[in-house]
Design goal:
Length: 152
Amino acid sequence: MIDVLKKIPLFENLTDEELTLLSSFIEEKTFEPEERIFSEGDPGDGIYIIQKGRVRISILLPGIGEELLALLRNGSHFGEMAVIEDKPRSASAIADEKTRCLFIPKKKFLQFLNQNIEIENKILKGLLHELSSRLRKTDNKLKEILLLIKSF
């Protein structure tokens, strides 16, 4: 499990000892194809890391249906926004194929962070990097959409 965690941007700055502490409360969960991991609007209960499989992150557009935001593969993580903000899930996560995830429960994760400010800072640094990267991708998608709209 530690080898998987080392490859995750959120945790890449942690030592093996810190990763061992983190892994002590991580659960493994398996999802069948098309199984809903969580739905848009659900309370954020934790962070997921894909060990094997694929997960669709999508939103439901009224009158249109499911709109794919991202297709995540091995080593990707999702669900961290609702843990950080303590707000409902902003999108749904659905297994695209049989998928095995590591699950970090919100309550235990926050307790873990509160116990050691150094670990918290390392994880926050990784999180800021990841969120910045995602925001940059979102900006680029928005530019493409605006260009498409203006071309009509």
